């Protein structure tokens, strides 16, 4: 297991002295008990590691989705998002049986990926509908993701996830599709992060198109812009009572959200000022704005 | 155009956060109560370091009373906590529960020289031990049992020394044998880099402390007859 020393020529060096004997395990009255406990701990650690690994992959994929949809949403990008989501599905499906029931919260800390995934899904939803997705709307999307991950390669997923004895308690789930549930914290912290993404989106789209993102489709007298949406999200979080569990993290996220709101506010202000100056000068140059409105 | 945020969403989330806060407050009360019983029992148990074994007969029943009130509080905790996801709030009580378990383990070892297995311990507390993933309820976890065990090793190593001071060399030898066996038992585990490993790593110091005591005794020929044979061979 451990490494070995090399001599000058780089060949493995013989150990000085006799080889240490294999670690002798003393057997006594307590050994059987400790062996049982060891097996339980091993199961837990293995499961945790599998979850962490999948979680990292899901996080990375979610971040890629977010980066992509940052730049508007033409068809080719939708296609890329779909493939990424398909990848996420597969990862979700492998860990789904392991995070049922009591294990959902046991590994909650190893499942930070769900926050990122929520961020990606809420952002996607916002860009398509200009509304905040509710937890109820997310539930079927998550179920769908897990189901898609299982159906194409059921056997592969199963052999991956099952180790000889450890998985037996989770096996009864095999027939019905296991669900990956989102906790309230997954949702809320995902939405916190959404405000950051909306800020980035507002900045780039304003710079590129010269108009404030939002509105347009409804044909109302005054389409709602992203500035108002950010204000609404900001007040939403300000009004919520602070959860007792993770006050520190909540405060931190809230502060970042405040900053994002103010940045977008500033954008709105700049737009208003420049917008009022523009008619006097050279409007036609900013034709990029028209394209954005057609979408 | 639909509003940015569904009007019902705010109230829905707000009420969930408020519910969570209430649950936490209630749990804190029960955990406080457990904490008080545990401190009292630990205080009583600290008297073993100055009480000769002949007087255990008066001390241990008091300890048992303390443990019984702990068990009652754990019962309350179990009933309340089982309504919610176990691992969501588990961190709130895991420390006082470990302390409670260790008073119970120490008590049984002192009175009968036996170690309660996880199952026996869970039975004593009338709570479940291991649950399948589907039963999300209060129980004693493997880690909690092991951590409790580490802390009685610490206590016993101290007792080994003090028992010699009290003139009870036999107890020191018994403790030495017990700790050595437990130490060997812990070697069986595959530990990850976590709190359990950190605590288990400290066992070796307890072992050394007790071995030093036994060495001092054997050097001076103070080991009582039963334990003496092995030691004399080494001389």
Automatic annotation (TrEMBL), chain A:
Residues 1-18 have a biased composition (Basic and acidic residues). It is found in: Cytoplasm; Nucleus. Residues 170-180 have a biased composition (Polar residues). Residues 1-24, 159-180, 274-295 are annotated as: Disordered. InterPro entries: Translin_C, Translin_fam, Translin_N, Translin_sf. It comes from the Eukaryota. Belongs to the translin family. PANTHER family: TRANSLIN AND TRANSLIN ASSOCIATED PROTEIN X. This is Translin-associated protein X. It comes from Podospora bellae-mahoneyi.
UniProtKB/TrEMBL annotation, chain B:
InterPro entries: Translin, Translin_C, Translin_fam, Translin_N, Translin_sf. It comes from Podospora bellae-mahoneyi. The gene is tsn1. Belongs to the translin family. This is Translin-1. Keywords: Cytoplasm, DNA-binding, Nucleus, RNA-binding. Transmembrane segments: none annotated. It is found in: Cytoplasm; Nucleus. PANTHER family: TRANSLIN AND TRANSLIN ASSOCIATED PROTEIN X (PTHR10741). It comes from the Eukaryota.
